[in-house]
Amino acid sequence: MVAKKILFVTTEISPYIPDTEMSLIARYLPQGIHERGKEIRTFMPKFGCINERRNQLHEVIRLSGMNLIIDETDHPLIIKVASIQSARMQIYFIDNEDFFQRKYLMHDENGVEFEDNDERSIFYVRGVMETVKKLRWVPDLIHCHGWMTALAPLYIKKHYKGDPCFKNAKVVYSIYDDEFVKPFRDNFAKKLKIEGVTQNDIKHLKEAPNFVNLSKLAIDFSDGIIAGSRNIRSDLIDYANEKEGLYYLPYQEEDVYVDAFNKFYDQILNK
User: What is the mean pLDDT of the chain?
Assistant: First the structure.
């Protein structure tokens, strides 16, 4: 029996980022899923606070070198890798000097959210997809964690729907209590547009490019939704539960979530 392939796309992973709810799940979930017989790949942004020497990151030249165009500007895509030796797990990092060489993750030293978080999200998601294509690794299911990955379900189901790497992939999106305060810039819907994406697909973001509508976009194009935090917005839970044919998994405690997620994956893959 061929092992199913699970792609994890996350914003944070411990120990590269200080321990948070998301970074700990993204650290131990892939390991647990691998131990349960599935193949895995894991991606995160290469934030500037990550010490490359201490964590032994190195660039993968054969995967780097592509330019991604966002709002008519070219942004070079750099791919780096590192390993968590104790878990025998390799992590792929999406890097770019314009977007990720900063000391802080989502805001400056005064707590003000970065103005270009919208473009950082677009670049990260597209960077992951293009790198997976170069790897020629075909995931059966893609699990996205947090709002920075929220465009992935849309791009997978619309832009990459005919691509051999993604055309049969199922998508799971975990919603966390990581709401951003400042809405994205008004032209966000225009900037994320790409071949295959229609105006109707992004109708929520045209109304208001905020956390709720970005989450609704992810829900619209996912096959399964997971409550990644104990307390997430009830309006998003209601929205997910109203979607016909969409699988929903409530919050799972630390001692059971790996088995619960693995069973959830199987349920979606076997439907």
Answer: 95
Using a 10 angstrom Cβ sphere, with 0-12 exposed, 13-18 middle and 19 or more buried, the burial of residue 51 is exposed
What is the domain extent for residue 43? 5-269
- Global pTM reads 0.96
Contacts of 27 (CB under 8 A, 6+ apart): 13, 14, 15, 84, 87
Which tens digits make up the pLDDT trace of 209-262? 999 999 999 999 999 999 999 999 999 999 999 999 999 999 999 999 999 999
Classify residue 110 as exposed, middle or buried by CB count within 10 Å of its CB (0-12, 13-18, 19+). Answer: exposed
Number of folded domains that form the chain: 1
* Closest listed residue to residue 248, CA positions, set 219, 208, 205: 219
pLDDT digits 0-9 by tens, 69-104:
998 899 999 999 999 988 789 999 999 999 999 989
Q: Which residue intervals of 136-162 are DSSP H helices? A: 152-154
Burial per residue of 3-42, b for 16 or more beta-carbon CB atoms within 10 angstroms, e otherwise: ebbbbbbbbbbbebbeebbbbbbbbbbbbbbbebebebbb
Residue 200 sits in a domain whose CATH number is 3.40.50.2000
